[in-house]
Design brief:
It is a single chain. The protein is elongated and about 75 Å long. It contains 12 helices and 10 strands. The chain has helices at residues 11-20, 39-47, 64-67, 83-95, 121-126, 132-138, 155-170, 178-186, 192-206, 241-259, 264-271, 275-284; strands at residues 2-4, 29-33, 72-76, 97-98, 107-108, 112-117, 142-144, 175-176, 211-212, 230-231. It has 2 domains: 2-145, Rossmann fold, CATH 3.40.50.300; 149-284, Orthogonal Bundle (Helicase, Ruva Protein, domain 3), CATH 1.10.8.60. 32% of the residues are buried. Helix 7 (155-170) crosses helix 9 (192-206) and helix 11 (264-271) crosses helix 12. It is an alpha/beta fold.
């Protein structure tokens, strides 16, 4: 499986979700950034080594591929993998066996491999920087993840996910107002999912109450609305999808009206709904 998308779009979050929903979820997910490990150490990191295989190999090492046996292995920034190691990876994908550095025996390993990259592998293949046979082997299922600004409907779910994980780490309640949720949804997020996650974590750490409003984020509240607080810790009914979707819909309608200069017919065209539907939504959300 191949995940593509610009930096910060949440490729690792997608990989974790795929793993959680798979039959391999009972076994762990191992992840490695191919660009973060020196070339001379990457083979050992992935496939392991035996004691004495090279200078500094003072003990046997299993390797991430073997550690992920029965589970999932995420190879992030696969486009940065050195060409010699690409051949080793392809050999494993074709045969399902690995050999640790310095070992004389092969070992069968069963994993789901997810590769992720922010660069164009097609271009890398044309430039002879990436093996074409490995690219075709990885590209069996290709999922392209657009920038967050192109999928604002994902923001509420991501906010809930990051707020919950932050709440567990801080051991405190974290909640967010619909006004803040609408503001976060309207923001363009040039740093994508990574920037959103950092914004939630920073706001939660600095907040005295854990109740996050627009002022806690320092972002332009262009789509702010009034309403009750959403509890994002999964402890109450406010975690339900419906109120979050309604908050997103309110924000979208507000943005559409603003973009159309208050002209409701034009706003309906921008929003892709009929004028009758827009009037219904305006009354429903008290935006008239």
């Amino acid at each position: 499986m191949l995940l593509t998308g610009v930096s910060g779009t949440g490729k690792e979050v997608f990989a974790q979700a795929i793993h959680r929903m798979s039959s391999r979820s009972s076994t762990g997910l191992e992840a490695v950034n191919c660009a973060a490990i020196p070339e001379h150490l990457l083979e050992s990191e992935l496939f392991g080594h035996v004691k004495g295989a090279f200078t500094g190999a003072t003990a046997d090492r299993l390797g991430l591929v073997a550690e992920a046996d029965g589970g999932t292995l995420l190879l992030d920034e696969i486009g940065e993998m050195p060409m010699p190691l690409q051949a080793t990876l392809l050999r494993f994908l074709e045969g399902g066996e690995i050999r640790r550095v310095g070992d004389e025996r092969n070992r069968h390993v069963d994993i789901r491999l997810i590769a992720a990259t922010a660069k164009s592998l097609e271009a890398a293949v044309q430039q002879k920087e990436f093996r074409d046979d490995l690219y075709y082997r990885l590209n069996v299922v290709h999922i392209h993840i657009p920038p967050l600004r192109e999928r604002p409907e994902d923001v509420p779910a991501l906010v809930a996910h990051f707020a919950q994980s932050t709440a567990r780490r801080l051991n405190r309640q974290v909640s967010i107002t619909p006004k803040a949720l609408a503001m976060l949804t309207a923001h363009h997020w040039p740093g994508n999912v990574r920037e959103l996650r950092n914004a939630i974590e920073r706001a939660a750490v600095l907040s005295e109450t854990g109740r996050l409003d627009c002022s806690d984020f320092g972002l332009l509240a262009s789509a702010a609305i009034d309403g009750p607080t959403f509890d994002l810790n999964g402890n109450g009914s406010e975690m339900a999808l419906k109120p979050q979707v309604e908050a997103l819909e309110r924000a979208a309608i507000s943005r559409g009206l603003a973009a159309a200069g208050g002209n409701r017919r034009e706003a309906a065209k921008l929003l892709g709904v009929s004028l009758r539907t827009l009037f219904y939504k305006l009354r429903r959300y008290n935006l008239v």
